Every structure is written in C-alpha cells, then in structure tokens.
Amino acid sequence: MDVLEKIKKLLCKYSHAWTLLYFFVYMTWFxxxxxxxxxxxxxxxxxxxxxxxxxxxxWFIIPYLLWFVYVVVVVAFVFFTSRKEFYQASAYLFIGMSxxxxxxxxxxxxxxxRIEEFTNDNILTSLMSMxxxxxxxxxxxxxxxxYNSVAVVVMLCKSHKxxxxxxxxxxxxxxxxxxxxxxxxxxxxSVVDAIGGIVLAVVMYIPVYGIDWTNMRAKxxxxxxxxxxxxxxxx
Length: 235
Known about the structure:
Elements: H1 3-13, H2 22-36, E1 44-45, H3 49-53, H4 61-81, H5 83-106, E2 109-110, H6 123-134, H7 144-157, H8 166-185, H9 191-210, H10 213-234
Helix pairs in contact: 2-5, 4-5, 4-7, 4-8, 5-7, 5-9, 7-8, 7-9
C-alpha cells in the first residue's frame, strides 16, 4: 500500500474531524466580542450578594487552567473512539458555546468582581494576573468555562468505551466541580454566570442526548411507507 492510499484511508476514517472547523468560527466570534464589549463600554453588570461572600483563592487557578487541557483531552478521546459519539459531543459543545456567544452579542454583559491587588505574591497570583490581562471581565454570561465543564462529564458518561470505568467518571466529575468553583473563587464569574452555564448544559442535553433521533427517523420512515402503501391500495 502506497503513502497516498494510506493517507486516503486515514482521511476517510477520521472524516468527522470537519466539525472541528467550528473552532475558527468560535475564535473569530469570541475575539470580535472581546474587542466590541470591553470594560470601557456599556454592558449589564452581573453581580449578586452571594458573590461578595465568596473569598478570592488563588489556588483555584490550578483547576481553572486545567480546563484548557481537560476539554481538549476529552474531545480527542471521543474523536478517536466513536464517530457517532463525537458528532453528538460536537453538537453538545458547539451549539451550546454558540448560544453563549449569541447571548453576549445581543445582551452585552460583564462583572466587576475582580481583585485589584493581590494580597499574596506567588506563582499562583502571577498566573492569575496573566489570566486577568488576557481575558476581559466582559462576555461572562453564561459561563463557557462552566458549560464545557459539565459537557465533558456528560460526554464521558455517555462513552461506550467507559461504560464500566467508573473511576474515570468520578474523577472527571470532581475536576469539573473544582473548575466550576474556580470561576467564582478567582472572581472570573458571578454565581449567576455559573448557574447560567449549568442550566444551559441541562437544556442542551435534552435535544442532543435525551432524544433518540435515529429511532424517530426510522419510525417516521416506517409510518410514511405504511401511509404510501395505504394510498396505493386505495387507488
């Protein structure tokens, strides 16, 4: 088998990678929002009393940054293990993320929770300072960090490969909880943002995983055949 044939087979095997092109759409949209809805522009400030009760804790920068690796690793795992599950995961992630960006587009929002000066001077606060600098305090509702943290747990729980691997699901659940908490303890998001991300993940679960679209299409086709058959018989 020559090289071209191997490449052709590889492309056919992983043709479902086309959905990852969404990343370019997402980044273009997100960067546009970051330049359009800035700390100096007009936006709805999301801030509730419970936010003030949550202390800043730089240790949460660890799970917060792990999110970037976590999501990529889980998506890659699903990509290489099941085409069907990957399409479901793509729909779950990408439609939900688009809804988050759409909400921020039509309803500019932000928060004023960030720490102006860190009490401690260490590597954790240095990392936090870098995050503050790279990411504005706008476009926060619903929290994409939170939405994706819930989504990847669902993806792992729905994975046929991990059907009997309970410890992975438990570990993922714990990490997701820590990531969700990190968004609030690092003053990156309001409690409202986090709740919004969780609610959106629950709502999106219904059309993506809660409905058996394949079975519905099969029943619809069967009913259509019966209907067409009855019409032919009447004629």
